[in-house]
Design brief:
By secondary structure, this protein is α+β, with helices and mostly antiparallel strands. It contains nine helices and four strands, in the order αβααβββαααααα. A four-stranded mixed sheet has the order 1-2-4-3. β3 and β4 form a beta hairpin. α5 crosses α6 and α5 crosses α7. The relative contact order is 0.09. It binds zinc ion.
């Protein structure tokens, strides 16, 4: 039997997703990720590496929703991925940027793990997540792939200039881009990446 054409499959998936308030069944979600292997090879590789080797990642949940972010992390160890970013490819979210998002979400899990609940706040959580993604993408740069670090630094600087200060991401970035740690990453990139 011929397999369902991808378009027809996505059509059914969109109906299922609407019916369940954007939630996509696991099997369909993993299938979309599998089908994104060619378009998002670095994301794909890291995704599987984390599933196998990141003890703080307990569960992956998939949604398909417009007008919301690509990923979310929960203190219970769940990371939610918005498949809209994989199905309807967005020029501003290429493979490098989605990889940064993935590290960002894992960064949240590390923040939750090492910060007792009463001491947590959304802005610090975002800052820790951004810094974790810089740390990990710098490691990639040291292994000859500068593009994720470059993408991260560019997008963080851009977003730090936003006026949406009700968004903890923006508040965290406004602090972060003025700190020596961020400057060190910029300097590393300038010296070591072409
Ligand atoms: Zn975040």
């Amino acid at each position: 039997m011929k397999i369902l054409s991808p378009l027809l499959f996505l059509f059914f998936l969109s109906i299922i997703a609407k019916a369940q308030h954007s939630k996509v069944p696991d099997t369909a979600g993993y299938r979309i990720i599998e089908e994104s292997k060619t378009a998002f090879p670095k994301f794909y590789q890291l995704f599987h590496q984390l599933l196998d080797h990141e003890p703080l990642l307990k569960q992956v949940v998939f949604i398909n929703k417009k007008a919301t972010g690509p990923g979310f992390a929960n203190p219970n160890g769940t990371i939610t991925f918005n498949l809209d970013y994989f199905i309807n490819k967005k020029p501003r979210f290429d493979d490098n940027r989605l990889l940064v998002v993935l590290y960002h979400e894992v960064g949240h899990l590390h923040y939750f793990d090492k910060t007792p609940r009463p001491q947590r706040n959304p802005e610090d959580s975002e800052k820790a997540a951004f810094e974790y993604s810089l740390q990990k993408t710098k490691e990639m740069a040291m292994n000859n792939d500068c593009l994720p670090l470059k993408s991260g630094l560019q997008n963080m600087l851009l977003r730090s200039q936003s006026n949406e200060t009700s968004d903890p991401h923006v508040r965290a970035l406004k602090r972060m881009v003025n700190e020596p740690l961020y400057a060190e990453y910029v300097s590393y990139q300038k010296t070591n990446c072409k």
